[in-house]
């Protein structure tokens, strides 16, 4: 475990608000990677991808850098535009 992971684990035990924020950040990063992978698989720039999904390029940038809490509605619009479907899973915490 890295020092930052150790710090986050210890602080999360003491601070429920920090734990919620850290979990949301991890979810945002998972979404960021998936959206970026989808865009890359289509060989599109952010601008081209944004045009495909009828959103501003800045929205795609915010999703891909993990700073946006992306709604399931927006993920559905992205999937539909890219001719994909979404799969959501709940996994046990390890």
UniProtKB/TrEMBL annotation:
Signal peptide: none annotated. Transmembrane segments: none annotated. The lineage of its organism: Bacteria, Bacillati, Bacillota, Bacilli, Lactobacillales. It comes from Lentilactobacillus fungorum. This is HTH cro/C1-type domain-containing protein. InterPro entries: Cro/C1-type_HTH (IPR001387), Lambda_DNA-bd_dom_sf (IPR010982). Residues 35-91 form the HTH cro/C1-type domain.
């Amino acid at each position: 475990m890295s020092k930052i992971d150790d710090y986050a684990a210890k602080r999360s035990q003491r601070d429920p608000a920090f734990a919620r924020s850290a979990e949301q950040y991890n979810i945002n990063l998972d979404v960021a990677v998936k959206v970026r992978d989808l865009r890359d698989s289509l060989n599109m720039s952010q601008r081209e991808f944004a045009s495909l999904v009828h959103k501003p390029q800045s929205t795609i940038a915010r999703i891909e850098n993990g700073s946006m809490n992306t709604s399931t509605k927006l993920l559905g619009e992205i999937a539909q535009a890219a001719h994909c479907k979404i799969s959501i899973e709940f996994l046990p915490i390890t």
